[in-house]
Amino acid sequence: MFIKEISKTTAVDFIHSYHYSKILPRLTKYYLGFFEEERLVGVVTLGWGTQPKATIKKIFYKHPEITTKDYFEIGKMCFLPEKNGDNFGSLAMKELISWSKKNLPSVKFIYTMADGIMGKCGYVYQASNFIYLGHFKTNVYMDKQTGEKIHPRSSKQLCKENAIFSNKEKIFWLEHDFCEHKGISRIRGLMFRYIYPLDKKSRKIIFKYDEYRSNPYPKDKDLVFEERVDKGKYNFITQPQFNMDVFNYNYQKYGNNKLAEKFFSYN
Predict the structure, then answer these.
(1) What is residue 60's DSSP assignment?
(2) How many CB atoms lie within 10 A of CB 124?
(3) First-residue to last-residue Cα distance in the chain
(4) Domain 2-264 adopts which CATH fold?
(5) DSSP string for 151-212
(6) Which of 13, 162, 242, 264 has the fewest CB atoms inside 10 Å of its own CB, making it the most exposed?
């Protein structure tokens, strides 16, 4: 297996075919393909998330000199279905780390998150010796009828409807009464954060933070799923089953859909 840069179009097509989430980060810098001979078997994108400055500042709060130029985040990672379930993921991470050291000499860290709300603890990162940084809670919405997973960033139109419904000027988070009216659930889960230092100096920096030392990796038993049942009240639930092929609210049907083109950030 080897890794090389590929075109955005090739990467996006592969991700749309094999990743459970079709949304791509806007701040993507590198599109990397994993090949067996000439066959594309996996794709990883590197860039930054929605709040890159805040992310790196929060991790390295003792080191203000570390900025966005010092790290990249894995935005998307997916492989052919036949490659899931074995050690292919950890082999791919080994190739990615090697490629990053060779081609990104000024970058100190590779950062990533595992989507606990989708039942993912980040086992591929654990197998690749990433350092576990801890977790935080995240919120999404789900259409009860279709199972569509609605990201809060995709709920602007719903927020406008909610404001009219509640006779308010603006709404930033969908209210419980409105969600009941629309048949939408608000779901809470966890996001697990990982980082990989690309050199010895960077590894020494990360271990200056006691909270990152010997931090036990999360397992399936650590997954948490909650559903809002009233204003400010949540009940524990089993893992929700999202339908990732429904796009009624996310506006991400592709083809000739101009909203989708903007949403996927092809430019």
Answers:
(1) T
(2) 22
(3) 30
(4) Aminopeptidase (3.40.630)
(5) -GGG-HHHHHHHHHHHT-S--SS--HHHHHHHTEEEEEEEEEEEEEESSHHHHHHHTTSGGG
(6) 13
Tokens describing residue 223:
């997954």
Write down the residue that tokens 């993921």 correspond to.
89
Task: Put residue 153 in one of left, alpha, beta given phi > 0 → left and psi -120 to 50 → alpha.
Answer: alpha
Q: How far is the C-alpha of 171 from the C-alpha of 156, rounded, in Å?
A: 9
Q: Which amino acid is at 31?
A: Y
Beta-bridge partners for 46: 30, 74
> What tens-digit pLDDT sequence spans the chain (267 residues)?
899 999 999 999 999 888 887 777 778 999 999 999 999 999 999 999 888 999 999 999 999 999 999 999 999 999 998 887 668 889 999 999 999 999 999 999 999 999 999 999 999 999 999 999 999 999 999 999 999 999 888 888 999 999 999 999 999 999 999 999 999 999 999 999 999 999 999 999 999 999 998 889 999 999 999 999 999 999 999 999 998 888 788 754 433 333 333 333 332
Q: How far is CA 49 from the centre of its chain?
A: 8
CA–CA separation, 96 vs 100, rounded Å?
A: 6
Q: What residues have CB less than 8 Å from 155, skipping those under 6 apart?
A: 141, 174, 249
